[in-house]
Amino acid sequence: MDAPQYSYVKFEKRDNVGLITLNRPKALNALNSDLFHELNEVVENFDNDASVGAIVLTGDDRAFAAGADIKEMRDSNYIDNYKTNFLHHWTNITNTRKPIIAAVNGYALGGGCELAMMCDIIYAGTKAQFGQPEIKLGTIPGAGGTQRLVKAVGKSKAMEMVLTGTFNLSAEEAERAGLVSKVFPPEKVVDEAIKTASIIASRSQPSVQMAKEAINQSFEMSLGAGLLFERRLFHSTFGTHDQREGMSAFVEKRSPNFKHK
């Protein structure tokens, strides 16, 4: 993938996986608008790259992202935020068709926790910490912290985290609560995320993307509507090459050769 060099993110391809690294180490990867513009562009490029089947997003050993850049927000006012719809573009990655795995080491606080929750799977190093400390700054989460966190860990724990601003989940607590899928030693979390992303990327990409869409719609629909949506997507897979190949390979006891079409 040919693209300009960026100031706040780094990226590379590992075979069929796109790896993106947040790159503001001196600021503990604090999130600002420029970083998100770069991140959104790189994610979109990977989403449109047919050779990439899944994406891994990570930070560094100290922080996935320690929060939003308070210096950028400090002098904002209501009218400016309203007119510019501030933070709207922070959630663009949730529209990505391909699965994104967050590989979290160190702090994932405030906007960093929200960014991790925008991803489809979260893997964490043993020293990771997840929290929403915005209330200590006289404000509240603004990029999903009061919404996605409840769905991930339940109302009581989300209330405790958001209302106190001081209760952070360790990696193990986050795994028990359902926020994190797996916990690894810090030096292994990125490699393990890439390994899982490679498995996902080896599957039929139309089916992977339909499955991701169906799971995400489960948060937006009633059970009846969601079941119908799922069934219709299931029906549609029978119009693909990969469904015929996958089922034929199973019957013939061989590995499938998916064409992603």
What report would you give on this structure?
- With about 260 residues, the chain is α/β, with parallel strands linked by helices.
- It folds into two domains: about 10-200, 2-enoyl-CoA Hydratase, Chain A, domain 1, CATH 3.90.226; about 205-250, Orthogonal Bundle (Lyase 2-enoyl-coa Hydratase, Chain  A, domain 2), CATH 1.10.12.
- The protein has helices spanning about 35-45, 70-75, 80-85, 110-120, 150-155, 155-165, 170-175, 190-200, 205-215, 225-235, 240-250, and strands at about 10-15, 15-20, 55-60, 65, 100-105, 105-110, 120-125, 130, 170, 180-185.
- α9 runs antiparallel to α10.
- The protein starts with 8 loop residues before the first strand and ends in a 10-residue tail after the last helix.
- The mean pLDDT is about 95.
- One of its GO terms (biological process) is fatty acid beta-oxidation.
- Its EC number is 4.2.1.17.
- It holds the Pfam family ECH_1.
Draw up the topology in text:
Blueprint lengths: L8 E6 L2 E6 L10 H15 L6 E5 L4 E3 L4 H4 L4 H7 L15 E5 L2 E3 L1 H8 L2 E5 L3 E3 L16 H6 L1 H10 L4 E2 H7 L4 E3 L4 H14 L2 H13 L5 H15 L3 H11 L10
Parallel strand pairs: 2-3, 3-5, 4-6, 5-7, 6-8, 7-10
Antiparallel strand pairs: 1-2, 8-9
What characteristics describe this protein?
alpha/beta; 2-enoyl-CoA Hydratase, Chain A, domain 1; Enoyl-CoA_hydra_C; 4-stranded mixed sheet; Lyase 2-enoyl-coa Hydratase, Chain  A, domain 2; 261 residues
Q: Describe the global form.
A: globular
Strand content: 15-25%
Our count of helices gives 11
- The CATH architecture of the largest domain can be named as Alpha-Beta Complex
- Named CATH topology of the largest domain: 2-enoyl-CoA Hydratase, Chain A, domain 1
Number of strands: 10
Average pLDDT reading: 94
Oligomer: single chain
The end-to-end span amounts to 22 Å
Label the structural class: alpha/beta
Helical content class: 40-55%
What's the CATH C level of the largest domain? Alpha Beta
Low-pLDDT parts are none
CATH evolutionary superfamily of the largest domain: 2-enoyl-CoA Hydratase, Chain A, domain 1
In the sheet with the most strands, the strands line up as 1-2-3-5-7-10
How many discrete domains?
2
